[in-house]
């Protein structure tokens, strides 16, 4: 490795920024794929793989994807929850590859909720 | 493909010794087995601080905190959390006395009461990857210094921040730099003192293990400010993991041209080497440390001249402790004002403490100056285990003293701690409960300084020995009425007649325990009793009427001092009893009295 200039150092910083933000928990959009047994059986894995791929293609490093358990509405799996910073979470149901791509494009990148696939806004309340 | 989840496995010395490398290995295997190795990354980090609960794993971005993991836990964890997305409750942390687990790290009291400057990267980076450090704004302060600041700007900034030496002395860092910069001579040296030796203290080790580049960057900035081109990290050889990580970090910094000639193309040269110390406590003292680097026996010399004028090889030398160095890049990047806004009037910023002894949450904490001892011990440390009463806290190691529970509202501030008779020190905090005998504690620390005295000054060499002998006598029940006076007289003479800090402060543990716990000394001497029931020679073990004659005590007694018929009350032969306490520990019916 050759000696670095100040510009090289900046480049490294940008390259690892995604990791840094992910570890700091500072992100602008969080997509949760519900991956209980029902979700996995209905194809949640494809949704997850697609998301990882399209996030990478978008070159946005402030979007994270994570998984959680069954959302309870097993007949509507696969489901995801999209949460933009400062906004209520939105649950989408009965997804497939093309639907998740559209949700990503419209809701995650442009902030417009895709009403036709949306199941509900908000989370269940704690007692 | 990019990773969606990072599993941060703590690989500080404490977690490693609990088996965290094994946990990491099995994690990687299981993740691969489940086909998740392209989306989940396992990262080894430095010390997370919560050493009592190790091995520790934190899952990001979800901030889920797992503790006390074993390799056997891992397959279930991977299946549940990483495959099916169900965080595993039973591996989460439950605070002492509570019933509900706390899933996320940021909700755990131990973590959320802390303010991180020196430990800002702990658990967030892989210490062996320079890119991780750069990603967290690493070496940005260096760029700022090289492109925007003059030497005097840097010194002014450190002075304005109010940063004081974190090794224990508390000398203003900016002033120290200024004196060294103004010393005559072209050749100057920068030294990092990593000869951490106080019993129970491991702040510096953890900083180097979790974030070695913060120390390197701090030293680089100091070197620019002072005009030094060579640096030495003096680190004890008992810290193999810290040395390894520091070596790796220096190598990576050299490869990137952050150490060496013409750094970042800005014409400044600086390089760094490691000197391993053989683990003599006295070598933490500046002049003894310098002698040791020069290859001489580690003994202190008189000051003045101070190292800033005539230090290593007779050249102006600036020595700062690990934690002090780690603060520097943060101050440069965030501004002196922001640093000075934290803390008290005369003590700014934060301080790292290692919390050990009779405390629930053993570990490493960084707290803002001005916090009270009680807040650290109870809110962060979780209090004293097993329902025992908090008695005292020892601060400052062998140079420090014991602060009693009544002074728990004392704030963390150089001057407030000094006023109690203890010192801020490098950050060791040993918590004691009602079963700790304060005479025994004083004896322990004096035993340490006595063994570590280099022998140069008569009072330190022989005086500490005489004091130790008196304390040993007192603990054995052979104390005499005039012993307390003798201890005080010797203490005053040792303080006055020793050359270096080791001798000057060696009597402190005795003096502070005498100040706050004189009645315990008197009970040992006059009544031949140890109020904490800790000094074995002063105890008697007797069987009371609750005895059901099960015979368990007789079976464990190593000297066969306990006799008695089955189902009848047993008896201890006091002549044969060696007071080992085995019977007391085994009895299930509280039928052994310890007095």
Structure characterization notes:
The complex is a heterodimer of chains A (127) and B (595). In chain A, 42% of the residues lie in helices and 19% in strands. Chain A is α+β, with helices and mostly antiparallel strands and 127 residues long. Chain A has one domain: Glutaredoxin, CATH 3.40.30.10. Chain A has a five-stranded mixed β-sheet with strand order 2-1-3-4-5, covered by helices on one side. In chain A, a hairpin with a 5-residue loop joins β3 (80-84) and β4 (90-92). Chain A is elongated. Chain B contains 23 helices and 17 strands. The longest helix of chain B is centred in the C-terminal third of the chain and has 20 residues, at 508-527.
Spatial gap, N to C terminus of chain B: 68 Å
Query: Could you tell me the radius of gyration of chain B in angstroms?
Result: 26 Å
Major beta sheet summary of chain A: 5 strands, mixed
Task: Extract low-pLDDT stretches of chain A.
Answer: none
Oligomeric status = heterodimer
Features:
heterodimer; A: 127 residues; alpha+beta; Glutaredoxin; five-stranded mixed β-sheet; 5 helices; B: alpha/beta; four-stranded mixed β-sheet; 39% helix
Secondary structure layout plus pairing:
The complex is a heterodimer of chains A (127) and B (595).
Chain A: H1 6-15, H2 17-24, E1 29-34, H3 37-42, H4 44-58, E2 63-68, E3 80-84, E4 90-92, H5 97-110, E5 118-121
Helix pairs in contact in A: 4-5
Chain B: E1 5-10, H1 13-17, H2 20-33, E2 40-45, E3 57-60, E4 64-66, H3 74-83, H4 109-112, H5 130-135, H6 140-148, H7 151-161, H8 173-182, E5 189-194, H9 203-210, H10 212-226, E6 230-236, H11 240-255, E7 271-277, H12 286-293, E8 317-321, H13 322-334, H14 336-340, E9 350-357, E10 363-368, H15 373-380, E11 390-395, E12 401-404, H16 414-419, E13 428-433, H17 438-452, H18 458-475, H19 483-497, H20 501-505, H21 508-527, E14 541-543, H22 552-556, E15 562-563, E16 571-572, H23 582-586, E17 592-594
Parallel strand pairs in B: 1-2, 5-6, 5-8, 6-7, 9-13
Antiparallel strand pairs in B: 1-3, 3-4, 9-10, 11-12, 11-13, 14-17, 15-16
Helix pairs in contact in B: 2-3, 6-10, 6-13, 7-8, 7-10, 9-10, 9-11, 10-13, 17-18, 17-21, 18-19, 19-21
């Amino acid at each position: 490795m050759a000696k670095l200039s100040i510009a090289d150092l900046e480049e490294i910083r940008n390259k690892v920024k995604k990791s840094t933000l992910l570890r700091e928990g500072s992100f602008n959009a969080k997509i949760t794929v519900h991956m209980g047994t029902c979700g996995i059986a209905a194809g949640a894995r494809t949704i997850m793989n697609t998301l990882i791929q399209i996030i990478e293609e978008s070159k946005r490093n402030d979007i994270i994807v994570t998984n959680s358990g069954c959302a309870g509405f097993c007949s509507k799996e696969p489901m995801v929850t999209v949460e933009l910073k400062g906004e209520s979470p939105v649950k989408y149901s009965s997804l497939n590859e093309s639907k998740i791509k559209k949700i990503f494009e419209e809701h995650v990148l442009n902030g417009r909720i895709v009403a036709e696939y949306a199941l509900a806004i908000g989370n269940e309340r704690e007692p | 493909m990019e990773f969606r989840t990072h599993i941060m496995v703590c690989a500080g010395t404490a977690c490693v010794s609990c088996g965290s490398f094994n946990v990491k290995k099995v994690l990687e295997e299981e993740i691969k087995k489940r086909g998740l190795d392209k989306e989940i990354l396992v990262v080894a980090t430095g010390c997370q601080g919560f050493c009592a609960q190790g091995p520790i794993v934190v899952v990001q971005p979800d901030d889920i905190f797992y503790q006390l993991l074993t390799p056997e836990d891992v397959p279930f964890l991977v299946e549940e959390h990483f495959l099916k997305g169900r965080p595993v409750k039973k591996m989460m942390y439950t605070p002492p006395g509570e019933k509900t687990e706390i899933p996320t790290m940021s909700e755990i009291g131990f973590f959320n009461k802390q303010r991180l400057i020196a430990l800002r990267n702990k658990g967030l980076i892989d210490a062996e990857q320079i890119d991780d450090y750069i990603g967290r704004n690493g070496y940005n302060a260096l760029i700022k210094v090289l492109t925007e600041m003059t030497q005097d700007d840097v010194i002014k900034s450190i002075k304005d921040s109010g940063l004081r030496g974190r090794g224990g002395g508390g000398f203003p860092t900016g002033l120290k730099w200024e004196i060294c910069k103004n010393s005559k001579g072209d050749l100057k040296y920068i030294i990092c003192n990593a000869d951490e030796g106080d019993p129970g203290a491991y702040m510096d080790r953890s900083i180097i293990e979790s974030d070695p580049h913060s120390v390197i960057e701090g030293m680089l900035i100091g070197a620019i400010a002072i005009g030094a081109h060579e640096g030495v990290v003096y680190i004890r050889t008992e810290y193999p993991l810290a040395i390894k990580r520091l070596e790796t970090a220096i190598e990576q910094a050299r490869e990137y041209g952050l150490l060496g000639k013409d750094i970042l193309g800005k014409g400044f040269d600086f390089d760094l080497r490691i000197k391993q110390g053989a683990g003599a406590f006295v070598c933490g003292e500046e002049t003894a440390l310098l002698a040791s680097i020069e290859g001489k026996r580690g003994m202190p010399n008189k000051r003045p001249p101070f190292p800033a004028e005539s230090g290593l090889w007779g050249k102006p030398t600036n020595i700062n402790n690990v934690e002090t160095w780690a603060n520097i890049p943060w101050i440069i990047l965030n501004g002196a004002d922001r640093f000075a806004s934290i803390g008290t009037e005369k003590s700014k910023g934060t301080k790292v403490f290692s919390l050990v002894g009779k405390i629930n949450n053993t570990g490493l904490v960084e707290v803002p100056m001005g916090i009270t001892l009680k807040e650290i011990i109870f809110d962060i440390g979780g209090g004293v285990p097993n329902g025992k009463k908090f008695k005292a806290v020892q601060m400052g190691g062998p140079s420090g003293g014991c602060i009693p529970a009544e002074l728990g509202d004392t704030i963390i501030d150089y001057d407030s701690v000094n006023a109690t008779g203890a010192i801020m020190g490098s950050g060791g905090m040993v918590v004691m409960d009602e079963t700790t005998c304060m005479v025994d504690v004083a004896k322990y620390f004096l035993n340490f300084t006595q063994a570590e005295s280099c022998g140069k000054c008569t009072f330190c060499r022989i005086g500490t020995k005489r004091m130790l002998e008196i304390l040993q006598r007192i603990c054995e029940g052979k104390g005499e009425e005039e012993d307390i006076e003798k201890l005080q007289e010797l203490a005053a003479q040792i303080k006055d007649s020793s050359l270096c800090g080791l001798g000057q402060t060696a009597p402190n543990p005795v003096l502070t325990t005498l100040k706050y716990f004189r009645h315990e000394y008197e009970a040992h001497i006059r009544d031949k009793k140890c109020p904490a029931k800790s000094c074995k020679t002063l105890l008697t073990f007797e069987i009371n009427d609750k005895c059901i004659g099960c015979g368990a005590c007789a079976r464990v007694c190593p000297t066969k001092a306990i006799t008695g018929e089955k189902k009848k009350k047993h008896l201890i032969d006091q002549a044969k009893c060696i007071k080992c306490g085995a019977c007391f520990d085994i009895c299930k019916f509280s039928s052994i009295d310890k007095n």
